[in-house]
Specification:
With 240 residues, the chain is an alpha+beta fold. It is built from seven helices and twelve strands. It is 30% helix and 30% strand.
Length: 240
């Protein structure tokens, strides 16, 4: 079975990516693949990821369910306090890298292994014009009410990230529910916005300033995706 839509014009898409630094590809996966991914994400017991004064933090689903209302309020206020001063994120995650390292055999772990192979990486190298891409980092993500990701450029010294990607798996969404991927200029202007169309693949070069807009309390859904980076690293590195 073909994972990727065989009708896509990768030459044309690659020209857009190389000249503009970003491209969104509609209907990227075959219907069977994207529907299986959608079902797999619906079964995740999500973990909340965010930052506090000491660094990155992760709360399991069990830990979140055990919080009292005052503890939830304190958690939210702590997240907002960090956001007032600098970079912050608050969304739900399931690491596919960890799934592979733990030897899981579920669909998402198998999908991560597929992404680390040439059937996916070869067209990514061709489109980007970067022959050094040879690994992938992936996580399932969910943005629900109150979640956001502040402006940053994805550069990390210890990881050779070349291309960031978002595989959108949300069927029903509205732009006023937030969760938009916005690209910004040096003066703060929003230069471009990617809507999370179901079965679209967003690609953009690293570094590039962007953010995910706040999901307001009135949003009636969750924005789900598989996100990460295409990296240049030995096959034994973190991304495989």
């Amino acid at each position: 079975m073909d994972y990727i839509n065989p009708t896509l014009d990768f030459d044309d898409l690659g020209r857009t990516l190389r000249t503009q630094g970003r491209v969104q590809i509609r209907n990227f996966f075959s219907p069977q693949v994207v529907e299986a991914l959608e079902r797999a994400l619906q079964a995740i017991d999500w973990e909340l990821v965010y930052r506090d004064a000491k660094g990155d933090r992760r709360l399991t689903g069990e830990q979140l369910r055990g919080l009292t209302p005052p503890q939830r309020m304190d958690l939210t206020e702590g997240i907002h306090a960090v956001a007032r001063e600098g970079f912050q994120f608050s969304f739900f995650s399931d690491s596919l890298v960890h799934a592979v390292h733990q030897g899981r055999s579920d669909l998402l772990a198998r999908f991560m292994r597929w992404m680390a192979g040439d059937e996916f990486l070869s067209p990514m190298r061709d489109m980007s014009g970067d022959p050094q891409i040879n690994g992938v980092y992936a996580q399932a993500t969910m943005y629900s009410r109150g979640n956001f990701l502040t402006t940053h450029d994805d550069h990390v010294d210890r990881e050779d990230r070349r291309i960031a990607y978002v595989i959108n798996l949300t069927r029903r969404w509205r732009p006023d529910w937030g969760g938009m991927l916005h690209f910004t200029g040096d003066d703060g202007s929003v230069l471009d916005t990617f809507y999370p169309h179901f079965n679209s693949l967003s690609l953009f070069t690293v570094p590039q300033r962007h953010f995910v807009s706040y999901v307001p309390p009135f949003a009636m859904g969750e924005r789900t995706a598989i996100t990460g980076w295409l990296i240049a690293a030995p096959k034994t590195g973190q991304g495989t």
